[in-house]
């Protein structure tokens, strides 16, 4: 039996690990990664922008275990739970979470200095502050008008933890909280990933159980995309297909759910050209979650192989790594993670995973214990 606290620690470390492994090659295509790196299978990887000018790299650094906003926003959400010590909703996004990203300084490893997190965030995540603080909207409408992407899903794992073993509760809370940030299939992915993390905390859980949970709670294009990608992944697994075939197959399948393909860079010559990229839709899906589940199925849940294949598949590599990591970290705890990788992540990012896991798991246990007490009282009513 894996201890609850060890599973929590596994989720937090795996967030950082998947993030840091994928960050140096984020936005490169599968073919570009193969050409420049062969295969990324180490935290000690040079960022492909490292030799560019300061303007092109925006003064950031990556590689050698440095984490990005995926990890920092996950830890910010943990902090909100530790402050509130209860389940969260959109108003908490607009209040305490906004304080975490815009007013409380943290160490930003990519900048190698302490500053407010919003200085590092991508525009769709800055939307949280714009809509909920500056525009003073109803938090339940905060996600309206945002670029639809995986920004909410990438940090949603803590909601799966505080609803461990209750995927319906995790899905509902993730939707309620993240609606102040995201909308459409970007919001849907957050709910589904939270449900998967919650399910992964159950004893003797299988990969098939995780996929079934994802498909059960997913709606619209997200549901169909997960069904098709995981079915394809099982076919590739049975055929012992190569990674080339798997990546090509996944990306071809996703074209009807995500029209961007490898066209993920934003350049001045694109401005003014009409596109449906990142717009709301009931028939589309983000790519990251279906791909993450696909590689978990293809590798039968093997921890490092799943993450490595995910980050080498190209495009939004760090978030794909995170989504694979949080599911498998919840399932396995820390036993599957190399100590050297943990030490690297802690050292360069100034993190203490023991302290983080101890603190957050204590709060999560309190929240879950209150839920159980309420359930017991409800049972008495029926007796």
UniProtKB/TrEMBL annotation:
Gene3D superfamilies: ADP-ribosylation/Crystallin J1
Source organism superkingdom: Bacteria
Protein's UniProt name: ADP-ribosylglycohydrolase family protein
One Pfam family from the record: ADP_ribosyl_GH
């Amino acid at each position: 039996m894996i201890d609850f606290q060890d599973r929590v620690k596994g989720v937090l470390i795996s967030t950082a690990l998947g993030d840091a492994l994928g960050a140096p090659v984020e936005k490169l295509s599968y073919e570009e990664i193969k050409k420049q790196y062969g295969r990324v299978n180490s935290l000690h990887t040079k960022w492909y922008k490292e030799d560019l000018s300061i303007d092109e790299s925006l003064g950031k650094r990556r590689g050698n275990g440095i984490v990005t906003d995926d990890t920092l926003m996950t830890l910010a959400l943990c902090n909100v739970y530790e402050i509130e010590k209860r389940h969260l909703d959109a108003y908490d996004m607009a209040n305490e979470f906004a304080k975490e990203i815009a007013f409380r300084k943290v160490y930003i490893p990519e900048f190698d200095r302490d500053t407010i997190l919003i200085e590092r965030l991508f525009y769709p995540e800055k939307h949280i502050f714009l809509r909920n603080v500056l525009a003073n909207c109803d938090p339940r409408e905060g996600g309206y008008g945002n670029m639809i992407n995986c920004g909410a899903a990438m940090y949603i794992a803590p909601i799966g933890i505080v609803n461990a073993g209750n995927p319906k509760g995790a899905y509902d809370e993730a939707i309620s909280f993240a609606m102040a940030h995201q909308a459409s299939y970007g919001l849907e992915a957050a709910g589904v990933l939270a449900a998967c993390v919650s399910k992964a905390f159950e004893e003797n859980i299988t990969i098939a159980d995780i996929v079934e949970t994802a498909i059960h709670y997913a709606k619209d294009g997200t549901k169909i995309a997960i069904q098709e990608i995981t079915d394809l992944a099982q076919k590739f697994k049975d055929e012992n297909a190569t990674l080339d075939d798997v990546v090509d197959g996944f990306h071809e399948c996703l074209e009807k759910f995500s029209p961007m393909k490898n066209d993920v860079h934003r350049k001045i010559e694109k401005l003014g050209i009409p596109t449906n990229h990142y717009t709301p839709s009931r028939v589309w899906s983000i790519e990251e979650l279906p791909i993450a589940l696909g590689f978990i199925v293809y590798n039968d849940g093997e921890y490092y192989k799943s993450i490595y294949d995910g980050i080498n598949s190209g495009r939004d590599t760090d978030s794909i790594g995170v989504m694979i990591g949080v599911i498998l970290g919840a399932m396995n705890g820390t036993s599957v993670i190399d100590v050297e990788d943990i030490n690297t992540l802690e050292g360069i990012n100034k993190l203490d995973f023991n302290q983080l896991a101890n603190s957050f798991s204590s709060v999560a246990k309190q929240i879950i214990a209150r839920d159980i007490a309420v359930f017991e009282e409800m049972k008495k009513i029926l007796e």
